[in-house]
Design a protein that fits this description.
mainly alpha, 393 residues, two-stranded antiparallel sheet, flat, 59% helix
Length: 393
């Protein structure tokens, strides 16, 4: 049995023959002291290494104080900020480490943590009070945020935060309705672009002083647009709003008739392209002063192709040449037109095959490529053209 005296253990059975007990005890005491010193040095080294890797943080939460042990690199005075950024984005980062990163000095680390889907709810609530609007803006896009947090962020003093809330696809209708009354036009513009915006908010935004917002109401919310709204928007003083009305798939014929006489040629062009445009309106637009309007008529109305094929503008004749209903005789005549028009003839799927084979030898390279890509071209002719084309190259 070991005996301990003043921290030094001796054993009578371990004393060799011929050596005095006191001398042996002194020798063993010295050895044990050296061993103990080595052990304490080793312990100090381990402790130093541990302190280098880990750090204790005193975190106050509510009415209690919690001691959190986190890696040393998680502290914001650590030189390796990249490791903190990686940890902030990693969904497997332990919550104690996230509790330290939530107070990181770098905005990028805190904003990255705000997007982390695994971030605990109480830390997300803490991040919603962050001093940086970039962090609060990043928090908006986190679907793991508590339900009531979005309503708080919708009342944020920073415009960018409210704007991000208004862009959110899963934003509640009552929040969008409140944001539709925001003082900042950027926020209201985001509300007008959100497909979940309720009708009550759209009714308010269609009278907005910003014309871009009124354009969004008409152009982006086709399913929830009452007929009377289109009628009223058709008389809007801003050309973009009237153009959006003319593009609307459910635009009433009476509104199209009124817009066909609009002073802006772009509005009349859109009316000419509309599938529900009345025939009598098309008849008036075929002689419109704008070549863009006449080209729109040529793109959709077969009965006026012969007449418009002799138009003085290449754009109109090109639209005629692109129309699949264009008569073969008209295509044959346009195949000798300007190269800009001939390309359209060669690309027309209704172009006669003999004419397509002829256009494979057109002087214009773009026309030849259009003819070779036409699905109506016979395969034999295409193979011969490719062979000749490869041989000459």
């Amino acid at each position: 049995m070991m005996r301990h005296t003043n921290g030094v253990g001796t054993s009578a059975a371990a004393v060799p023959n011929g050596v005095g007990t006191n001398q042996y005890a002194r020798r063993m005491s010295r050895r044990q002291q050296l061993a103990a010193a080595s052990f304490h040095d080793l312990l100090a080294q381990v402790k130093q290494e541990t302190e280098r890797q880990y750090h204790c943080y005193e975190i106050w939460a509510g009415d209690c104080t919690t001691i959190v042990v986190a890696p040393r690199w998680a502290h914001d005075d650590h030189p390796d900020s990249g490791q903190r950024l990686i940890a902030a984005s990693d969904p497997d980062t332990p919550p104690p480490v996230m509790s330290v990163l939530v107070r990181d000095r770098a905005i990028l680390v805190r904003s990255t943590l705000a997007r982390n889907l695994s971030c605990p709810s109480h830390l997300l609530v803490e991040l919603s009070q962050d001093r940086s609007p970039l962090v609060r803006t990043a928090l908006v896009s986190n679907p793991a945020a508590p339900p009531g947090l979005l309503a708080e962020l919708a009342a944020d003093p920073e415009q960018n935060v409210r704007q991000e809330v208004a862009k959110l696809a899963q934003c509640q209708p009552d929040i969008l309705d409140r944001l539709s009354q925001d003082q900042r036009p950027e926020v209201r513009h985001a509300v007008s672009e959100n497909p979940n915006t309720p009708v009550t908010a759209l009714d308010r935004l269609r009278h907005d002083c910003d014309p871009n917002i009124r354009v969004n109401v008409v152009g982006l919310h086709t399913d929830s647009m009452p007929r009377e709204w289109l009628v009223q928007a058709g008389a809007d003083p801003v050309q973009g709003v009237r153009e959006a009305v003319a593009r609307h798939a459910l635009c009433p014929p009476a509104v199209l008739i009124a817009l066909s006489q609009d002073q802006d040629a772009k509005v009349r062009e859109v009316v000419a392209y509309h599938r529900a445009c009345p025939h009598e309106v098309v008849r008036t637009l075929v002689d419109d002063e704008s070549q863009h309007v006449r080209a729109a008529v040529a793109a959709r109305c077969p009965e006026y192709l012969e007449r418009l094929s002799r138009d003085g503008y290449q754009e109109v004749r090109r639209a005629v040449a692109f129309n699949p209903s264009c008569p073969p005789a008209v295509l044959d005549r346009l195949s000798r037109d300007h190269a800009f028009v001939r390309q359209a003839v060669a690309a027309n799927s209704s172009c006669p095959r003999p004419l397509l084979v002829q256009m494979l030898h057109d002087e214009n390279p773009a026309t030849r490529r259009a003819a070779s890509a036409n699905p109506s071209l016979p395969r034999a002719a295409l193979a011969m053209w490719q062979l000749a084309h490869t041989g000459t190259r």
